[in-house]
Design goal:
The chain has 151 residues and is mostly helical. Helix content is 44%, strand content 0%. It is rod-shaped.
Length: 151
């Protein structure tokens, strides 16, 4: 192969590389200047710990909702675990109760529906502490949930 043919081939290859490489460099290899926006559409739940301590933890204590007996001790009966009566840990209870909240449809949160009477819209649970949705303890927990959803 003569020198002119070799130079022509190299020139064509270089031109092809530039032609094909430019779009890739322009679109595929550039770092974003800021992270992409997070997906939207859901409800965020940002619960207030201080409101939990003042409004919800007293309800749990008053109603006997703790790890005593075989209630809310975790293990095989369920995933809703609370601290024992003799060693209350509000921070632990806060985390566990927060997991029982449905921010998309707050009124269907397990922390509200499990202890609610069936004829008032509750779901099966061995203990029914709220006869209706107007029960003051039910209202206290629901208010805490709504405050966290609307933040």
């Amino acid at each position: 192969m003569n020198e002119v043919t070799r130079v022509n081939r190299l020139t064509r290859r270089a031109a092809l590389a530039i032609l094909l490489g430019s779009p890739l460099a322009a679109f595929g290899c550039v770092s974003p200047t800021s992270p992409p926006a997070a997906p939207s559409g859901g409800q965020a739940f940002t619960p207030s710990y201080s409101l939990f301590q003042s409004a919800v933890e007293p309800v749990l204590e008053r109603q006997g909702c703790d790890a005593g007996g075989d209630c809310h001790g975790g293990g095989p009966r369920g995933a809703f675990e609370l601290s024992p009566a003799g060693a209350k840990d509000p921070a632990f209870d806060f985390q566990q109760v927060s997991l029982q909240v449905n921010p998309v449809t707050p009124d269907s949160s397990r922390i509200l529906t499990k202890p609610l009477a069936l004829d008032a819209g509750g779901v099966p649970h061995q203990v029914k502490v709220f006869a209706s949705t107007s029960d003051t303890d039910y209202v206290a927990i629901r208010s805490w949930i709504l405050a966290g959803v609307n933040r």
